[in-house]
């Protein structure tokens, strides 16, 4: 029977192998398998101006810096460019670095680039062919498009700038070598001996900036402009065209603009500035960098400056670039710097705010935004904050703000009670001296009837329009006395948020909501009132109260939010909820919140904004009225620990809808990376099982938030959501041709119809070929024949092996039983009998001694102060002490004694044939041997002694009583000072008889 089983198993295995071989071409396993149906698709935006943000002062831009610690090969950024595929290129003295928003890829001299030296001075884009010209040291110049490099003939001098103009000529500005016009293999040299720095095409003219001044090439002639001035006869560095196609010249003596067949200084304040870089952005604003005074912008805001004192890595500017997303890149000699309009803008002390710690915000009917900080009240207008009602000496710490019906503002403070601002001055309204239970006012609410509710740290106060005050505390039904939020719903109910729950006031009575029982919620930080429902920001997430049914629903960490504690909830014009927290500000759609409330197991889709998005601090503030608001201009404002942050939801929508180019950067087979070329075929050798694709969405505004979708045509038809992952892997793809596609978007954006793609062709493995399958079938038939012929022979051998195995297993089981029996009755540490064995001995010998009328005695030993030994010397030393004591006792005992470890540091010794006096003799011997032993080998200064209790069969009605008698004697020995031997009959009973 065993032979038959083995034979059938072998046959089944072979058939299984053949079946899997034939089926392998029908399926493959994808790693990271998250499927998704088709998504909404939008075409790539042809006009980037659709996503143009409004112009803002230079101080409102969000700045970021990269240097060698971030992957740059060198900190001097000599040149900058962006290719149509979206990559940012930075030329340095140690090569050119290609940036995808996450990492820099370095290209240096060598066979790939064809450059003779790694020093890069020039990056320029051919607008017709979209090739990038890379030039620099040793006259090297190459062009690159996609991943293909082509080396061009080198010049005799270092190239400061290379430019391909519309007639096909390549101009090379050389250091000490003039300028070269290379056309159809011929080089024409001009300005020999001078250093030239920049070349610019303007219609039929080519302008050259040089150490000898400004020159123009026209009609085959190189000459100075007809009308110029002395400033442009000296050192000129950079050239650009403004929006009216007028020439801009960056020179040693300022920046000049072409006007009326001449040149005029752009601004007289720049006369002594050496301008090393010039750029005109899409608005027509002029940006220029200087040799040692930083960066300037000339715009509707006038002449603005940015230097090392406000974050620029260095005041020496080498290059400028505006990318496709309208961010400004600045190359310095200390790293790469970028200015971008981040989603969030922070209003802080540097822009006039009285203090950075902002607690409350108010969108007032006068159109202004009011802000309460720990240093006073402020009004925001025209991009700056103005402190109001300043008090000499100690500033007024503002906690809450609320509009008054007469156009004023109620101002709740930390130590000054409730104040009132009438537009000009700040005066006291109510405080502890005039009736408030506390001067700490965290919430204020005015009703239509003129009544004012005031939430303090000591309870709630209502002041009616006649000035009468009414007080409410927890004794009146208030959830708690520490009031943090007040609001009125569509039914006229007054909602109160406290530090121990929330409730509402209706018709003279408070009603408490059982949020603590249902959601374990205590803190209610803020409310959002909507018709028919109330939204609450709590310490366990966002809660919704249905005003008609009374139903409560919540979303929190269980539904994917990163934090429990929410301080405020605001809804913008696009029906997105903004939730402030200690970790930043979250944006989540109403639809996602409702879906997760209806299906609590469903995870919400949200975006968390923090310091990487323009916030100086991700710690939003809460615990007082209006820590976040929707201003009348539809911007969302949030109070934080380092200023008030503002986000324009429209700006986020524009950013989200920007068409993101995406690049497939590498295809990797197992651990062997391959270069990926867009829209080409990559052959996958048969020995590789895992194929991975690495890609990058080339967006730089919110790089870490870019989302991806991929699909592998030939394996899957629908797009698969990849989240923020920029790598996708597939394993065990069947042989065949596939097309991998990837597309990218910003959060909440619209997917493009298509993105980047690469074709792959998977070659069949040997076992997937037809010849191999025929060979397997033939081998199967041969094996079946062999199995048939050997069947009976194997049956006999199997029977013999089975008998032998049964015998061996029987022997093994017997040995295991013996081992188990020994383990059950012996102590693992000392090797002597354990309590289980001793209990059996005691019962047997007690019965036998009673029957035969023979004496029987028992010793119970305990090592003195053993816990202190463990605590002072360690448990390892304690174990060694136990083992040593056991060895000493074993050497002292007579042959008939039965010795066992009772448990921990306690031991028992049974003496058949001995009474209590005889047992005590042995006990004294044992005690003396243990006390006199030298334990220094175990630990320095270690002393060990034992206390021993003895008892015999006299007065013991059973074995348990004998053990109890010995235990009482042992207890008496410990009580009398330890390190002694006492008997139950001799000592314990005697003590009992003493008066």
Radius of gyration from the CA trace?
A: 44 Å
The tally of helices reads 12
How much helix is in the residues?
Answer: 10-25%
- How would you characterize the largest beta sheet? 5 strands, antiparallel
**Can you tell me the residue ranges where pLDDT is under 50 for at least 5 consecutive residues?**
1-51
Structural commentary:
The protein has 995 residues and is an alpha+beta fold. 19% of the residues lie in helices and 39% in strands. The chain contains 12 helices and 73 strands. A hairpin with a 2-residue loop joins strand 53 and strand 54. Helix 1 (2-23) packs across helix 6. The longest helix is centred in the last third of the chain and has 35 residues, at 791-825. The chain is extended, with a radius of gyration of 44 Å. The relative contact order is 0.07.
Please give the structural blueprint:
Elements: H1 2-23, E1 29-30, E2 41-42, E3 62-66, E4 79-82, E5 88-92, E6 95-99, E7 104-107, E8 120-125, E9 132-136, E10 141-145, E11 148-152, E12 159-164, E13 170-174, E14 179-183, E15 186-190, E16 196-202, E17 205-210, E18 213-218, E19 221-223, E20 236-241, E21 247-251, E22 254-259, E23 262-265, E24 275-280, E25 286-290, E26 295-299, E27 302-306, E28 317-322, E29 328-332, E30 335-340, E31 344-347, E32 358-363, E33 369-373, E34 376-381, E35 384-388, E36 398-403, E37 409-413, E38 418-421, E39 426-430, E40 441-446, E41 452-456, E42 459-463, E43 469-472, E44 483-488, E45 494-498, E46 501-506, E47 509-513, H2 515-519, E48 524-530, E49 533-538, E50 541-546, E51 552-555, E52 568-571, E53 576-581, E54 584-589, H3 590-598, E55 606-609, E56 628-630, E57 636-640, E58 643-647, H4 649-656, E59 662-669, E60 672-675, E61 681-684, E62 690-697, E63 707-713, E64 720-723, E65 727-731, E66 736-745, E67 751-752, E68 756-762, H5 770-789, H6 791-825, H7 835-852, E69 856-863, H8 866-873, H9 875-892, E70 898-903, E71 906-912, ...
Parallel strand pairs: 2-67, 61-68, 72-73
Antiparallel strand pairs: 1-65, 3-30, 4-5, 5-6, 6-7, 8-9, 9-10, 10-11, 12-13, 13-14, 14-15, 16-17, 17-18, 18-19, 20-21, 21-22, 22-23, 24-25, 25-26, 26-27, 28-29, 29-30, 31-58, 32-33, 33-34, 34-35, 36-37, 37-38, 38-39, 40-41, 41-42, 42-43, 44-45, 45-46, 46-47, 48-49, 49-50, 50-51, 52-53, 53-54, ...
